[in-house]
């Protein structure tokens, strides 16, 4: 049982699943019974468990309200205001341009969610969650753009039935449903490119901490946006040569960013369609960061085959994105991205083992997952061409 994959296979075997199904049916019969619920909350020994379960179910029911409170805080720039230190209600109310009572309503709701913290009757500062968000422009931008996601999810059943044709996210991510992605003009790519750049920092750190990129001579980031990831690599590894491949308008942004960062000598940007235009050769490491979950299986197969063609024997590919079924990050892959990508109109979250099988079918070898510290940000698979 030393091999974790062997252990996972045992867990997925029909006999184990049958036993699990039977025990969960017994558990569910108990949990669903009002008598049992009353009994569990009355006994001091089971009360904490009953309280925790009730709280978790309530959080599921109220999650949309929490998200809207968070969105209001971000839209009103409350966290930026409180980053300068705690303030009185009257000061916050005038800075937010809200009447005092609704301001108090928002602040108390945000305090319950640990976004702010109350210090006395009329004084509020940043709470622990608010502090994390305030310190990360990427999270702030993600929350702002969630307004579109919430609108698209207003009728999730229509979305599931494919009856929603006007989803805002599908026009935001213009490449997802476009038939001529390479013709997308600046206006169609600039917003998502800026959002990706703002949310890339933590992911780049995670990849750099997990995979030894320094052992490579040349990295090409395919779908690399405005080059934020390769600039992070350039800052850490002075000798490495870098390339970005993305749609022509996005590659142009990367080119300008490389020039402003003074790294144009060793960082180049290439425009084209990664499904059908030949990828530049010469890299001994290719990365696909937050790319494949955006696309359906057949386009992903094409992309893997394109990447394989661009790599020489011994060349490696890393695939980094949040994945379905990642331990301690199940909500991000299956719940969040599952529905997000459905609204976007393309792609799906995949588990590490699914991606590994797809890579093997395209002729990649030694594909394996390397554990990252924060699977919520990204999981990581490395594979090679032999
Ligand atoms: C979700 S973003 C990820 C950007 C970047 N890798 C990151 O993690 O910040 C997807 C990127 O793939 C690029 N892209 C999508 N379809 C493409 C295609 N057919 N050819 C080239 N690039 C494409 C987009 O322009 C975008 O920059």
The CATH architecture of the largest domain can be given as: 3-Layer(aba) Sandwich
Ligands:
S-adenosylmethionine
Q: What's the CATH C level of the largest domain?
A: Alpha Beta
Instruction: Name the quaternary structure.
Output: single chain
Categorize the overall geometry.
globular
Low-confidence stretches: none
Number of strands: 10
Strand order of the largest sheet: 6-5-4-7-8-10-9
Fourth CATH level, the homologous superfamily of the largest domain: Vaccinia Virus protein VP39
Please report the distance between the alpha carbons of the first and last residues. Answer: 30 Å
Question: What's the helical proportion of residues?
Answer: 40-55%
Could you report the average pLDDT, rounded to the nearest whole number?
94
Describe the structure.
- The protein is of the alpha/beta class.
- It has 3 domains: 13-42; 47-134, Orthogonal Bundle (Arc Repressor Mutant, subunit A), CATH 1.10.10; 168-384, Vaccinia Virus protein VP39 (Rossmann fold, 3-Layer(aba) Sandwich), CATH 3.40.50.
- Helices cover 55% and strands 12% of the residues.
- It has 19 helices and 10 strands.
- It has helices at residues 4-11, 14-31, 34-42, 47-75, 78-83, 89-96, 100-112, 128-134, 137-152, 156-160, 168-172, 174-177, 186-198, 201-210, 228-236, 248-260, 297-310, 330-344, 352-361, and strands at 87-88, 116-118, 123-126, 218-222, 241-246, 267-271, 285-289, 316-321, 365-370, 379-384.
- The strands form 2 sheets. It has a 7-stranded mixed sheet with strand order 6-5-4-7-8-10-9, sandwiched between helices. Strands 1-3-2 form a 3-stranded antiparallel sheet.
- Strand 7, helix 17 (297-310) and strand 8 (316-321) form a beta-alpha-beta unit.
- The radius of gyration is 24 Å and the shape is globular.
- The model has no long low-confidence stretch (mean pLDDT 94).
- It binds S-adenosylmethionine.
- S-adenosylmethionine binds next to loops.
């Amino acid at each position: 049982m030393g091999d974790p994959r062997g252990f996972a296979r045992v867990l997925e075997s029909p006999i184990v699943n049958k036993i699990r199904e039977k025990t969960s049916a017994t558990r569910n019969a108990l949990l669903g019974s009002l008598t049992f619920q009353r009994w569990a909350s009355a006994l001091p020994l089971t009360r904490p468990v009953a309280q925790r379960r009730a709280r978790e179910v309530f959080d599921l029911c109220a999650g949309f309200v929490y998200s809207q409170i968070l969105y209001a805080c971000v839209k009103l720039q409350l966290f930026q205001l409180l980053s300068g230190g705690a303030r009185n209600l009257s000061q916050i109310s005038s800075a937010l341009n809200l009447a005092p009572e609704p301001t108090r309503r928002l602040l108390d709701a945000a305090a319950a969610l640990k976004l702010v913290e109350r210090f006395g009757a009329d004084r509020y500062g940043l709470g622990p969650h608010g502090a994390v968000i305030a310190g990360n422009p990427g999270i702030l931008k993600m929350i702002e753009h969630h307004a579109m996601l919430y609108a698209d999810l207003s009728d999730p059943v229509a979305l599931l039935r494919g009856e929603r044709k006007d989803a805002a996210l599908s026009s935001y991510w213009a490449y997802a449903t476009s038939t001529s992605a390479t013709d997308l003009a600046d206006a169609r790519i600039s917003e998502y490119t800026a959002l990706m750049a703002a949310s890339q920092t933590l992911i780049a750190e995670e990849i750099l901490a997990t995979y030894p990129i320094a052992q490579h001579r040349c990295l090409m980031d395919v779908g690399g946006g405005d080059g934020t990831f390769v600039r992070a690599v350039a800052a850490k590894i002075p000798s490495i040569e870098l390339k970005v491949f993305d749609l022509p308008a996005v590659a142009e942004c990367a080119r300008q960013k490389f020039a402003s960062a003074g790294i144009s000598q060793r960082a180049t940007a290439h425009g084209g369609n990664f499904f059908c235009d030949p990828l530049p050769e010469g890299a001994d490491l290719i990365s696909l960061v937050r790319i494949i979950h955006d696309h359906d299986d057949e386009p992903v197969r094409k992309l893997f085959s394109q990447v394989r063609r661009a790599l020489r024997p011994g060349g490696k590919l890393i695939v980094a994105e949040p994945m379905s079924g990642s331990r301690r990050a199940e909500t991000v892959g299956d719940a969040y991205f599952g529905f997000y990508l459905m609204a976007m109109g393309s792609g799906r979250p995949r588990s590490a083992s699914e991606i590994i099988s797809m890579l093997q079918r395209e002729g990649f070898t030694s594909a394996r997952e390397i554990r990252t510290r924060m699977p919520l940000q990204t999981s990581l698979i490395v594979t090679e061409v032999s």
